[in-house]
Amino acid sequence: MIEKEILTNTDSVYNYKDGDKVLGYLEIRFVDGVIDIMNLFVNEENRKQGIATSLMEEMFKKENYSRIMLEVNENNIEALRLYNKLGFKEISLRDRYYGEDTAIIMEKVK
What we know:
Layout: E1 2-6, E2 11-18, E3 21-31, E4 34-42, H1 51-62, E5 67-73, H2 77-85, E6 89-98, E7 101-109
Parallel strand pairs: 4-5
Antiparallel strand pairs: 1-2, 2-3, 3-4, 5-7, 6-7
């Protein structure tokens, strides 16, 4: 079950729950029609079960956005696969954003 929790007037979190246990969450900031994905996390033992995809798809359905922005470490191959599968496109790079690693800036336009 996915529940949306409103944290502030701009910040929300989608929690993927099994009973009372949170298996994963998607934290977003929503300003002027643009969603910034702040964090997407799934417990290690619950990965590869479609939880991250379900969280993202729930957000797509519930939010009235014009575009979604995120950044991801170039070496986070699983996250890159997910974002590409969901229609995000690379728009920019930030060299050495994560120490020696580059951040890939991605967006999805509605």
